[in-house]
């Protein structure tokens, strides 16, 4: 039998943790309940615009839907983080999240147009020719200088 939280997520989709109907238990995890969250560097809450609310989801939930719920629940992120910065933080969770960030974040940020943001804020990615990791367009030099696992 499914726990109340897992049953709730099955019916309602990704949900902020504080809106779940029951207390979280180890059984929830065993039944597939996962959390999506991001953290600021060195716990700097101010740079994130305040405390970030985790989103509970199940593996069957589409990452785009989870991410939309996350951004809608934490709108201060769009105000305090650049599209590039937020995309990188989300992308740290893996390729499927990086792709979801590319698809979803454009709906929350205005286009940079010709204002000098270049491709870096477009959310588009290129593949690093050395390690195969996806990096934001225009940020390959930074990636090669620091993060590349050549």
3D structure, described in words:
The protein is an alpha+beta fold. Helix content is 37%, strand content 9%. The chain has 7 helices and 5 strands. The radius of gyration is 17 Å and the shape is globular. The model is unreliable at 113-120 (pLDDT under 50).
List keywords for this structure.
globular, alpha+beta, 7 helices, 150 residues, 3-stranded antiparallel sheet, 5 strands, two-stranded antiparallel sheet
Summarize the structure.
With 150 residues, the protein is an alpha+beta fold.
Task: State the major sheet.
Answer: 3 strands, antiparallel
Share of β-strand residues: 5-15%
What is the helix tally?
A: 7
Please state the oligomeric state of the protein chains shown.
Answer: single chain
Report the count of strand segments: 5
Please state how the strands of the largest beta sheet are arranged side by side. 1-3-2
- CA distance, first residue to last residue: 47 Å
SSE order = HEHEEHHHHEEH
Low-confidence stretches: 113-120
Helix content: 25-40%
The best one-word shape is globular
Class from secondary-structure proportions = alpha+beta
Q: Give the overall average pLDDT.
A: 83
Rg calc: 17 Å
């Amino acid at each position: 039998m499914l726990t109340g939280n897992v049953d709730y997520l099955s019916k309602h989709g990704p949900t902020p943790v504080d809106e779940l109907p029951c207390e979280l238990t180890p059984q929830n995890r065993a039944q597939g309940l996962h959390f999506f969250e991001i953290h600021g560097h060195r716990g700097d809450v101010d740079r994130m615009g305040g405390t970030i609310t985790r989103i509970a989801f199940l593996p069957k939930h589409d990452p785009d839907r989870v991410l939309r719920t996350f951004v809608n629940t934490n709108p201060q992120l769009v105000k305090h983080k650049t599209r590039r910065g937020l995309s990188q933080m989300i992308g740290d969770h893996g390729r499927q999240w990086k792709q979801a960030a590319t698809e979803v974040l454009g709906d929350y940020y205005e286009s940079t147009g010709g204002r000098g943001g270049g491709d870096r804020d477009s959310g588009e990615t290129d593949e690093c020719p050395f390690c195969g990791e996806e990096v934001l367009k225009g940020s390959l030099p930074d990636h090669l200088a620091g993060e590349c696992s050549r």
